[in-house]
Amino acid sequence: MASQNVWLLAVGAGPSNLALAVALEELAPESKAANSLIVERAPDATWQREMLFPWTRSQVSFLKDLVTLRNPLSEYTFVNYLHSVGRLDEFVNLGSSTPYRMEISAYLQWVSKSLRRTRIEYNRECVSATPTEHGWTVRMADESTVSCRHLVLGVGRDAHIPAVFAALPREKVIHSTEFRSKLADLAGTRPQTIAVVGGAQSATEMLWESYQSLPGTRCVLLTRGVGLRSYEHSKFANQVYQPSFVDTFYRSEPEVRHQMFADMRPTNYGASDPELLDTLYRQMYQDRLTDQDRLSVVVNSDVVAATSEGDEIVLTVVDRTTGLSEELRCSAVLLGTGFEPGPPRLIRNLGIEDVTVDRKYRVRGVPSLYLQGLNEQTHGIADSLLSVLGIRAGEIVADILSTDEERDGR
């Protein structure tokens, strides 16, 4: 069984740990950066690969990249990426601060290939981590191990599959985290009806992509809400995504944080991009003009039962306003139901009873373990998004270096 020993191991090569890699390159001593490793279970650093379509856009400014807010002079900025690939003029001419999602993904891959010291190893899935006297031993799916002094987890939450769909054939229930991979299979079966469950961005994106990619298919979105809502994106509301707001949120009493988080939710959860909602509404209107009925949104609806009958899924849908139910027969169910609220399986398996972090993202009472993107309840709603990546990565690297100095008695 192969074994490695590194100073720092980061699990997951998403934006959080790529920002950490950039911070290591710029802030850590060269020897420590060169003795740092990121492992990623996927074959590359593609971002949101299952929802990556040419028309999808980010809702975040390009200035909230991996490093600009921490170090605008960095060679790893999104602007420098555009310059390096010869597309800066064209991007400026777009007149938009929000890039296409494919462009952000390409930027992240460019960064991953541009790192000089910090290594990334792909197709390596972490299955467990065990604390040791001097740090951690992490076991991979291939039975190899990595020992490290510091462990940073940036793995994201587990997909939420509502219990009502749990007994259905897995190939017929498609969560947004596997949508793009399975869309080709749907296209091959030429489905008659597709049901999309949810009312937020992932649900509306799957609805629109299914409508475009599956000609002749009826696409129905089922949502519990009274209607599809757009994000609350006023300049004042968006102040909660500034890195400086993290201190304000963290210093507040728990009950105040709870209330603030409830106030923040409409800026990111349960809503969609207004431009996409306009597109959907206009297409629905055009379909009515041409006597088509391919695209529909059913509001105030609860799916209370789901069964499999032959090649079909039969959903029992209750109208929340009348209490009446009806059946919807479909070829597949697409779930835009988000993610489990608790920590992902890898972290639960650590056996830590209270997985909370301090201000510098270090798990309380656990030596040298840091969590990225899982700390909304203590650090605010921006923690799971792109907005604080650069600043947070710098704070974690600084804390790790300070911890080493204290441990080594310097």
Give the helix/strand layout.
Layout: E1 3-11, H1 15-27, H2 30-34, E2 36-39, H3 78-84, H4 88-94, H5 101-114, E3 119-121, E4 126-132, E5 135-140, E6 145-153, E7 173-175, H6 179-189, E8 193-197, H7 201-213, E9 218-222, H8 245-251, H9 254-264, H10 274-289, E10 295-298, E11 301-309, E12 312-319, E13 325-330, E14 332-335, H11 345-348, E15 369-371, H12 376-379, H13 389-407
Parallel strand pairs: 1-2, 1-6, 2-3, 6-15, 7-14, 8-9, 8-14, 9-10
Antiparallel strand pairs: 4-5, 5-6, 11-12, 12-13
Helix pairs in contact: 1-13
Task: Walk me through this protein's architecture.
The chain has two domains: 225 residues, FAD/NAD(P)-binding domain, CATH 3.50.50; 135 residues, FAD/NAD(P)-binding domain. The mean pLDDT is 94. Strands 1, 2, 3, 4, 5, 6 and 15 form a seven-stranded mixed beta sheet that branches. It starts with a strand and ends with a helix. α1 crosses α13. With 410 residues, it is of the alpha/beta class. The chain is globular. The longest helix is centred in the last third of the chain and has 19 residues. β4 and β5 form a beta hairpin. Its cofactor is FAD. InterPro entries: FAD/NAD-bd_sf, Lys/Orn_oxygenase. One of its GO terms (biological process) is intracellular iron ion homeostasis. One of its GO terms (molecular function) is L-lysine 6-monooxygenase (NADPH) activity. Pfam families: Lys_Orn_oxgnase.
Summarize the structure.
Its cofactor is FAD. This protein is α/β, with parallel strands linked by helices and 410 residues long.
The CATH topology of the largest domain is given as FAD/NAD(P)-binding domain
CATH superfamily of the largest domain: FAD/NAD(P)-binding domain
| Beta-strand fraction estimate | 15-25%
The main β sheet shows up as: 7 strands, mixed
| CATH hierarchy class name of the largest domain | Alpha Beta
Q: What is the averaged pLDDT score?
A: 94
Beta-strand segment tally: 15
Radius of gyration: 23 Å
Organism: Kibdelosporangium phytohabitans
EC number: 1.14.13.59
Pathway: Siderophore biosynthesis
Keywords: FAD, Flavoprotein, Monooxygenase, NADP, Oxidoreductase
